[in-house]
Amino acid sequence: MNQSVGQREVENRILKLLTEGDLKQLGSVIQDVPADDIVLIIERLGAKQQAVVFRLLHKDEALDVFEALDPLVQSDLVRGLRDGEVAEIFEGLDPDDRVWLLDELPATLAPKLLHGLSERERRLTSVVLGYPQDSVGRRMTPEYVTTRMDYTVADTMARLRDRIDDAETIYMLPVLDDARHIAGVVSLRDLIAAEPDAIIASIMSEAQSVEATEDAEHAARKLTEAGFVAIPVVDRERRLVGLLTFDDAMRIIEHEESEDSARQGGVEPLRRPYFATPIMQLVRSRVVWLLVLAVGATLTVQVLDVFEGTLAEVTVLALFVPLLIGTGGNTGNQAATTVTRALALGDVKARDIARVLGREARVGAMLGLLLGTLGFLIAGFVYSWQIGAVIGLTLVAICTVAATIGGIMPLVARWVKVDPAVFSNPFISTFVDASGLIIYFLIARAILGL
User: Where does the record place the CBS domain (predicted)?
Assistant: First the structure.
């Protein structure tokens, strides 16, 4: 998110006052800053500075700011606040937001915070905590308003007014039968438009729902693609247990896509804003991947060593090595990114591996023909037509292999229950580098008679 000039000036002033320890002036400055800007500023501060700034906020604004922070930043902030402050904030959170925070806190701190909740809030939070870590049940809200098929619109509106302060959303109401099974849904818009004595069964719509143990990302995408404001979460008997709201769905998707993009780039996800991440954590998020890729890159070195004689006889071949392995790596990464995205959207399943292999092989071959033709013409004109033939055929082969491997690697990862992003770009690049060089030198030997 881009910072405005005014926001940067405020941030610089806050940092200056923090450094000088002028808390009285700092408190005065903070009171005039909108909550959204305070969130951005806090996420760019160190843990100790975050706690100082947060304590200077008004009580009402503090909860709004806290709820808008990333869960890991919330976790850092909790450790910097006094027990009484933490208990008050924790009580004011929605149950699903509490669970986001609890998932990031040390296990020893969670029971203490739960014990300090009121009986009602502890019960609601325990419902959400009872579901698996990556399930939609873990991200749903148990605070909602329902109606029944035989209720009138007037009855439902009265029920809504009585419970409006307890519900996280009022724009979509689940309609239940006598056994608490989902019978349909009714929107606030339909309620307002209907006659007061109309029966809910006559205006409700068919309900789409997700099971509480379903993967949270899959459920979130189902909600956003359908354009719902919320979607009912049910148990195996289709009894209502909660709602997944649109804002929580977007939060889930943002979290998952941040992880995927990080791993595709060869780093572990930070899961917190950049400036709020300690230097050593930045180092740890990168060093393991660099070591793994460095070990993998020794394959490329070994291949070059095996074909050292070939390079010595035709030194011009060395000039094209960066071009060929770079093109192969990019082709594989493009295929992996496309298929990983299709997996996330549900367009492709792990069982579709044969179909994906065939499609990506054809795509790779076509890309190879286009690039290979260009490579043949340029290399042939500048060096010789034999060299041009080597480059052209190598590009066809490398692009075909890279696209095929890149396309099926995420499916293999899903099949063995590993994050597809982990298997994609870094490992594909390493594999294609080595295999591409082997293809290159074998074609060169065959055409040049080496």
Answer: 140-202, 203-261
Strand (E) or helix (H) holding 184? strand 182-187
The token duo for 303 is 């291949």
Q: Of the candidates 322, 336, 323, which has an alpha carbon nearest to the alpha carbon of residue 405?
A: 336
Q: Whole-number mean pLDDT of the chain?
A: 83
Which DSSP string corresponds to 311-356? Answer: HHH-GGGGGGHHHHHHHHHHHHHHHHHHHHHHHHHTSS-GGGHHHH
Please tell me the distance from the alpha carbon of residue 55 to that of residue 57, in angstroms, as a whole number. Answer: 6
How confident is the model at residue 51, as a pLDDT?
81
CATH number at residue 35: 1.25.60.10
Residues 344 and 412 in one domain: yes
Percent above pLDDT 70 for the chain: 86
Using DSSP's 3-state secondary structure scheme, residue 4 falls into coil
Q: What share of the chain is helix, strand, coil (3-state, %, to 5)?
A: 70, 10, 25
Cα distance between residue 45 and residue 36, in whole Å: 15
How many independent structural domains does the chain possess?
3
Is the same domain home to 25 and 111?
yes
Domain boundary among 71, 106, 133: 133
Distance CA 121, CA 17 (A): 38
* Domain contains 37: yes
Residue 185 bridge partners (DSSP): 174, 205
- Per residue in 232-283, pLDDT (tens digit) is 999 988 899 999 999 999 988 888 777 766 666 656 666 666 666 777 776 7
